[in-house]
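User: Teach me something about this protein's shape.
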Amino acid sequence: MTVNMRVTLGQASVVIDPQNPHIIIGRDPATCHIVSNDASVSRQHAQIYIDYGFLYLHDMGSSNGTWVNGVPLRDQPVPIDPSQQIFVGQQQLFLEEMGMGGKKTMMVAQPEAIRAYIAGREAHMAAQGAAVPTYQQASPHHQTAAPFATGYEQPAMQPMQQQPLTRDEQLGLGGSEGGLPAEYTYRRQGSNSNGVLLIALKQDTFANDNVIDGYLEYTALDSETIASITIELVEYHKNGPSKGHVWDRMLVRQGPWKSKKNDILPMPFSLRVPTGTAVTGRNVNWELRGYVDINWAFDVQATSPINMKNVDMEKVRDALGTIDYRIVELDPLSLGQHYVGKFQPPAQLRSQLGVSNINLDIEYLGADLLIRMVVEKTSMFKFDKKTEFRFDLSRLRSASIHELGQHFLDNINLLMK
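Assistant: First, the predicted structure itself:
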């Protein structure tokens, strides 16, 4: 099972996936990936991680507890999903599956047990030997697992802050500093006499259904009136529009406002990669396109080429490889979220198998993947045979390539009979 989930707490959000399999939630910006200024959240409050394809939540000794479906966690991590009601202190945690049509957490009222717990009743109950039951006690048959069973080391616990917050701290006076473009190592820029626009990314390779998080940084070289700043995700296909096709666009800053010479404005952005993305190759290129719209002056543009993968097409390719059908081509059509491919058996076995080519027509249909397969027979047989399959994308992605390969082989053999 592949986990690709957006985790949101308050205004902070991050995607957890196999490339980013572990996050810490808390108030300490130096050690936490999701930072909250809420007074009920500890410096290092909880952690979420992926283990063997499942998502787990583990409380890190917080003062006000981490709650799942109205009961607090203690020492053991528990598996979580968007259907559960999860609170970090007094704040609700939201999960959203990144695939098209993915499940997401619904907003709910804060359970009374949390208010009572944070008000100090737990200390009184513990003194009387009647502490609030933990999530594991309330759900004894629910699956648990040791944290980081696949090789991660659990971070050392930090001492919890016991002193009450000042009023300024409770109000968040002074703000909190977020990430900066300097932390994003893949950097491209465009410029003219009016300014410099920098596109900063942590990486340059993405896959379908990913979220591209990055920074735009605009440096003014003159005093101008800025109308807007935008960023776009653009696909260029050999047979598509000459200016490319925009799959996602974000208005990073809406004007108008006056910029002064040497002003520097860093701006985070987030773009969604489509489900059936075309793979970068001989016919396809991808880029991010940033644009500063300046009133009555030359606009500033910047582009950043990126590489795009498609995990679904890789799975189909590898599945056919497990039954020794070798790829000839697997190419995307223009803008259609649509692929055509050809695979061949070993040349020395063509006559024996009676198969010269396996032709595939693969099309994304919402949350499904439709595969039409034509078995092209050698001259000793008459009439090509065809069939089609409709897969649920989420289940297809969690299946093994050997299971999918056996599915193809069973249907090839059935058609040949």
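Now, about its shape. The two ends are 34 Å apart (CA to CA). Helices lie at 112-127, 135-138, 167-171, 311-322, 350-353, 393-398, 401-416. If you'd like, I can walk through any region in more detail.
User: That's plenty for now, thanks!
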